[in-house]
Design a protein that fits this description.
The complex is a heterodimer.
Chain A: H1 3-11, H2 15-37, H3 40-56, H4 67-93, H5 96-109, H6 113-122, H7 126-137, H8 142-149, H9 153-170, H10 175-180
Chain B: H1 2-15, H2 26-41, H3 51-83, H4 85-127, H5 132-150, H6 157-174, H7 182-194, H8 197-209
């Protein structure tokens, strides 16, 4: 069945169509949420919220873009809100040292360079990881990232550069491996 | 530097697969949102109309009728005004004074209603009580906040900032999931406290009514 037809059925209140639409996109939504938050429990919350918002505002979806692109944008927005909320919470409780500790543990526990890199990305502070993920993983340019995060283009570039520096520093002892990878 | 390029290449190549193979607990997530989705996609005609919504609809209807009435009255009074210049200026001045007074009254009324809503909401947060009507009311207040922000009227910078903060807060409340994760609830409470939202509304209300 065409996706537009599914959407029409959802608009009439058809829950089985809603479930089909959900099944078709949950993988991509959850993956994006995981990449943005670096935390499975948070990613599930983001995915839940993103779908509820998408279904709630389905009447406003005009089909000018793919449903997947639209849900992607909603997920991004929800994830960024969660990250901002976490930033506020961290400002109170502070856990960057804890993140470094986690990175150290993973660094010694994981044998594979890729796994080490992913652990290092997970351990990046939110402001760096969100820009890094949006640029290097999701393929957005700095103008788009600036608009999404509400930061100037130059700040986006600076954060990406900061993220790369932190990752390089985190993987310094494996320099031989990544240089020859 | 060559090493920098090598590292950037390595990042670009390998980061593409970051969290790419995570399998979501599809059924578990669906079961948590199923009732919200059912509620969200239910056709409008059979959605529950709350008494509060009905009152707001009546209020909006009366306001629209008044705006139309005043507009028609002004339009029909135009030929008389065009005869003499001095009364035109006086009428224009009176109009702008009336418009400003009306805008102040609307803002004050809106802030008063928002204060009541936020006070109830805060009490609900503390008791852990969940009510779908709260989200509906929050959405209605959010829409009116945006209307006020969009209207070009003379407002003090403090009132403008307060309305902007309310817009963000009401948007967050509107987006609060039915299950109300404790983190969301905690952050909302924190937003209200850190932003001094309720005290600011309370101090703005007398200032507005005094015509400042």
């Amino acid at each position: 069945m065409q996706e537009t037809e599914l959407i029409e059925r959802v608009r009439t209140g058809d829950m089985s169509a809603a479930r089909q639409l959900y099944d078709a996109h949950i993988g991509a939504v959850h993956r994006l949420a995981m990449r943005m938050t670096g935390d499975d429990a948070l990613a599930q919350e983001v995915a839940q919220d993103a779908f509820v918002r998408a279904f709630r505002s389905l009447e406003r979806f005009r089909g000018e873009s793919q449903f997947g692109t639209w849900v992607h944008r909603i997920t991004m927005s929800v994830a960024l809100n969660v990250i901002r909320g976490r930033k506020r919470a961290r400002a109170r409780y502070g856990d960057i040292e804890e993140a470094d500790h986690v990175l150290d543990e993973r660094r010694h526990a994981e044998p594979d360079l890729k796994t080490k890199l992913y652990a290092a990305i997970d351990a990046l502070p939110d402001i760096y990881r969100s820009v890094f993920v949006l640029h290097e993983v999701e393929g957005h340019n700095h103008d788009e990232i600036g608009a999404l995060l509400g930061i100037p283009n130059g700040t986006s570039k600076a954060r990406l550069s900061g993220a790369r520096a932190k990752l390089r520093s985190a993987l310094r002892e494996f320099e031989g491996e990544w240089a020859s990878a | 530097m060559p090493d920098d390029n090598k590292f950037d290449d390595f990042l670009r190549r390998e980061a593409k697969d970051y969290n790419a193979s995570v399998t979501p607990p599809t059924d578990a997530i669906w079961s948590r949102i199923e009732s919200d989705v059912a509620d969200a996609i239910r056709p409008r005609a059979i959605r529950r109309i709350t008494p509060r919504r009905a009152w707001i609809a009546i209020g909006v209807g009366i306001a629209a009728a008044m705006v139309i009435g005043v507009s028609v009255g002004r339009w029909t009074a135009q030929p008389v005004v065009s005869v003499a210049t001095a009364p035109v200026r006086r009428d224009a001045m009176n109009d702008s004074v009336r418009t400003a007074a009306h805008a102040r009254a609307s803002t004050m009324e809106h802030l008063a209603e928002t204060e009541i809503f936020l006070t109830e909401f805060r009490a609900d947060l503390k008791s852990g009580h969940t009510d779908a009507e709260l989200r509906d009311r929050s959405r209605e207040l959010l829409a009116r906040t945006r209307l006020l922000l969009g209207a070009s009227t003379d407002r003090s910078p403090a009132t403008e900032r307060l309305l902007e903060d309310l817009e963000l807060l009401l948007a967050e409340i509107s987006a609060l999931p039915k299950s109300r994760p404790s983190m969301d609830v905690q952050l909302l409470d924190e937003t209200m406290r850190q932003g001094n939202i309720l005290p600011r509304i309370r101090t703005t209300l007398p200032a507005q009514s005094a015509g400042t």
